[in-house]
């Protein structure tokens, strides 16, 4: 569907960060054909991503990362012309269902919220990880000018020019949408494993920072703000011994990941391996640091 075919469009600007996402971007764009403006912030894609985006009526802006802050999405929020009062942040492997579109339509007409949290419906190897991975609340929809990504001090870790686990922070009251985003990449498992390895490098460096800071106050655990609650749980988890085992038991047993069948088992094992890789890279950093001190 091209931009000229849109009917009953909504005053929403969709912002999508891309780099070589030709296998995903078409479905993503088709799912937001109702938005009055769609912006791709691209990192010099060479696989046809740009051509697909232009064919679907999206604006394409190139981002050249030279280190530091802001990164890709925050740069777009600060520097590009956003024509609408609401912004929706998407990844290329995410889609907005008709049900979520209608919920967004109602949400942006309210005046008591300035942002909305949305959950994922995560598809892995063609199966919904209904139990294994009900991803936490992400602030993705917000009033233009009131939201931006937090700066965690992470710059070139993993070689990314885009925000990874940084969260959107909104100045104002935030609600929750009931309908989840559909998250399903068309990349193969080899690509997924490679990206998880890169994520573990980022997480190890981020975790090293986090372990130097004190635990957040316990009251955050009881907060109605999903961001505060998630940060407390994360701070608690990273201090536990045996994190890979706990991760597997939590996802596969406590959250009943076994009900997701063989794919659920594969996913839970891979999440445990991801935790193991983070811990191993932290240990490597500690050993290397000790060796440097001994030689100096």
Number of extended strands: 13
Number of helices: 8
The low-confidence runs, each spanning 5 or more residues with pLDDT under 50, are 1-6
Helix content: 25-40%
* Strand-pairing-aware structural class: alpha/beta
Q: What percentage of amino acids are in beta strands?
A: 15-25%
User: What form results from the Cα inertia axes?
Assistant: globular
In spatial order, strands of the major sheet run: 3-2-1-4-9-6-12
**Span from first to last CA?**
63 Å
Q: The biggest beta sheet, please?
A: 7 strands, mixed
- SSE succession: EHEHEHEEHEEEEEEEEHHHH
Brief summary of the model shown:
The chain is of the alpha/beta class. Helix content is 39%, strand content 20%. The protein has helices spanning 22-31, 49-55, 72-79, 98-107, 189-210, 226-237, 243-254, 261-295; strands at 10-18, 35-42, 59-62, 86-91, 94-95, 115-118, 120-124, 127-128, 138-143, 147-149, 168-170, 174-176, 181-183.
Write structural notes for this entry.
With 296 residues, the chain is an alpha/beta fold. The chain is built from eight helices and 13 strands. A seven-stranded mixed β-sheet has the order 3-2-1-4-9-6-12. Strand 7 and strand 8 form a beta hairpin. Helix 5 crosses helix 8 and helix 7 packs antiparallel against helix 8. The N terminus is likely disordered.
How do the strands and helices of this protein lay out in sequence?
Elements (H helix, E strand, L loop, with lengths): L9 E9 L3 H10 L3 E8 L6 H7 L3 E4 L9 H8 L6 E6 L2 E2 L2 H10 L7 E4 L1 E5 L2 E2 L9 E6 L3 E3 L18 E3 L3 E3 L4 E3 L5 H22 L15 H12 L5 H12 L6 H35 L1
Parallel strand pairs: 1-2, 1-4, 2-3, 6-12, 7-13
Antiparallel strand pairs: 4-9, 5-13, 6-9, 7-8, 10-11
Helix pairs in contact: 1-2, 5-8, 7-8
